[in-house]
Amino acid sequence: MRDLVERCLLVEEDELAEAISHAYREEQQVLEGGAAAGIAALLSGRLKPDGPTLLVLSGRNLDMDQHCRLVCGGGAAAKEASNA
Q1: How many CB atoms lie within 10 A of CB 6?
Q2: Do 84 and 68 form a contact (C-beta atoms < 8 A)?
Q3: How far is CA 21 from CA 11, 14, 50, in A?
């Protein structure tokens, strides 16, 4: 596996919340935090692709009330939801 991985990136909780919201608004996808990590890396600028890029969106294990708080409430709601 190490031969296939170029690098690992870390994203912040608020970046994950924004990515979850973005996925819902722009792609009509309901995603859990781990599934939205690639989107968070792109939106935050931590990942700057220099060519075609593929993100795997896999995982919807998220309480729908929490999802609503993330999508409807933004940053402050995202912190509350992540502590719930």
Answers
A1: 4
A2: no
A3: 15, 11, 25
